[in-house]
Amino acid sequence: MEKKIGLKTFEGVYTPTLLTILGVILYLRLGWIVGNAGFFATLLIILLAHVITFTTALSMSSMLTNIKIGSGGAYAIITRSLGLEMGGAIGVPLYVSQAISVAFYITGFSELWITFFPDHSQLLVGVITWGILSLISLKSAKLAFRIQYVILVAVGLSIISFLTGPNLNTQGVVMQGAFKSAGFWTTFAIFFPAVTGVLTGATMSGDLENPRRSIIKGTLSAILTGLIIYIIVAYWFAHQADQETLVSNTSIIFELASVEILIIAGVMGAVLSSALSTLVSAPRTLAALAENRVVPFHKTLGKINKAGEPINAIILSSIISLLVILAGNLDSLASLLTMFFLTTYGMINLVVFLEQFTGIISYRPSLKMSIFVPIVGSLGCISVMLLINPIFTVVTFAVIAMIYALLKNRNFASPYGDVRGGIFISISEWAAQKSASIPYHPRLWKPSVAVPVEKPEDFKRLTRIIKKLVYPSGRVYYIASHEECPIDHAHDHQIDEVLRPLRDEKIFVQKTTVTSDDFSSVLIPTLQSLKSTYLPPNIILLTISEDPQKRDKLKEMVNRIKPLNLSVGCLWLHPKFGMGNERKINLWLRDKSPNNDLAILCALQLSRNYDAELNLCRVVYDENEKKSTIQDLVDFIDEARLPSNTKVRVYTGRFKELMGQNNADINILGMPHEFSAMTSIIEASPSSILFVASGGLENALI
């Protein structure tokens, strides 16, 4: 069992977050930004950047007052709202970015080191620094963060040294800049990485004594402290040096200090602190991923030692950072890493927006806020990503989508539940309200087939023709009865198995089981209930049995369904040939039959999905009518937009004899008024038949 380290707010969140914010940008880039943009524009840049990070922190804080966060920080928040797949899709790149960032910080430290000690080897300095930091992180997270107290003091003394240094400005305060070196948004993009470490403390959620309180108080306090320091330092740059010097000399801060060694200690300490805090937090993200079995070798990587440290995750993270250090200059990856951090921040804002948007009662945080807070945070993150590098923005989303697709195939079962279902329910509720206000029109028709079934195995032999009847966007309603309540698990599993082929084709399937020992007595009330739902069935598909008693029941059922104004289909599958080769469909149309529209639409669906030949057939009683009837049907093919290869067949004679002579894999025709006529047609047919009776919902000419 993991042993709680029990870090406090100051050491576990405030200090590492603040030191990550007060990094190289403060010392070596802020002066240039002031010289290029002027103080007023710099102030705007600082405020805009902090709006994004502050809204992200507020969104995170709101979520923390609504959930019990475990280890993993931002990853845990996203997982608990959007599922393990999306959590992993964000968490894996986030972890890699954290691990590689360690190398960037160490490389930055070694570059600064050889500036002051040019005889030293930069690679050797980097490897030695890596070794020391790795040993500290392996020893204890608490030790690592307590070392940062010393660094915090050094940073504080360096700022004091800067504020008490000499004034080299003889031209007045630099309030406005000419943006000669870079435009406003380019300058903004250069500054923004300064504030991308705001979730450093949140990553330590699993090691904090009180994660909810510490992350909220520590993060918000660190952001506000950093904001104040950046504004003060920016103004002091504008006050202490002229514009030309600020632009041309990025190391001007050393000349503006009262004690240069304090600035050296501060800047090197800030970089070192960022490396150390990231080296400690990155393994926590990996361990959280391993705990949820998102990454390979999850048992090994999720192992916790007696001191509560994710020992193997720390070792792997250290190895990754060492390899990056040895690889040399990887500045081209810096923007991509920033993208993954920004994506994480954006997703946290999106999570809060979705939680509020769906209106689910489980979202009731103690820290409530306007929905505009996460909206501003999300849009801000996306905007900054596009400003920094549009190509890397696309690459980032492509990587996330690829990881999501891989994890989706693993069928994770989230133990937390997530908000995705609520999102779709909210969209459905909105759509239901809108569609309910719009009168139904036959143009909206699509096959929505209700299939009453006594046993799951009865449905199995109908699966293929039902799929061909509704694919790709129709719906299927499986209706069954069960004598006992509740339905036993084994029977429910059998139903799921026979429905699986339809669900695998992404067909909408709904099963409805009612408790009754007489299925026929509850079928009509069930259909009445389904008819009043948001997405009701519009066709009832019944099967015609060889058993005379079942045919009598079918006759009674059809008569009882007619008042519901629902279309009815009666399918007779030939006991020997079934659906035959599924290559030929005969559609028999009677002149001015009310069932023609439904028959045409069903034939069209089957011919498309079977890729079958469609024959438009009609019987006339006078040979003289054939020519005009053929022309009428040819015109009808064009008017109804039937497939161009549809053939016209017009015959004279007796219908039953003609149907027997013109064999097809299935015949589709309007349902006779008399049930006995339907029986006699079946007896004369050498192939399967689908009889249809329209409920008036269809129009094949629209």
Secondary-structure topology with pairs:
Elements: H1 9-21, H2 24-64, H3 74-116, H4 122-139, H5 141-163, H6 184-191, H7 211-240, H8 243-248, H9 252-255, H10 260-291, H11 298-301, H12 311-327, H13 334-358, H14 372-388, H15 390-408, H16 420-436, E1 448-452, H17 456-460, H18 463-470, E2 475-482, H19 489-504, E3 508-515, H20 519-531, E4 539-543, H21 548-561, E5 567-572, E6 584-588, H22 596-610, E7 613-620, H23 626-639, E8 647-652, H24 655-661, E9 666-670, H25 675-684, E10 688-693
Parallel strand pairs: 1-2, 1-4, 2-3, 4-5, 6-7, 6-9, 7-8, 9-10
Antiparallel strand pairs: 5-10
Name its key features:
Rossmann fold, alpha/beta, Amino acid/polyamine transporter I, 3 domains, 60% helix, 10 strands, elongated
Mind explaining what this structure looks like?
The chain contains 25 helices and 10 strands. A 10-stranded mixed sheet has the order 3-2-1-4-5-10-9-6-7-8, with helices on both faces. Helix content is 60%, strand content 9%. It is elongated. It is of the alpha/beta class and 702 residues long. It starts with 8 loop residues before the first helix and ends in a 9-residue tail after the last strand. The chain folds into 3 domains: 400 residues, Up-down Bundle (Amino acid/polyamine transporter I), CATH 1.20.1740.10; 96 residues, Rossmann fold; 159 residues, HUPs (Rossmann fold).
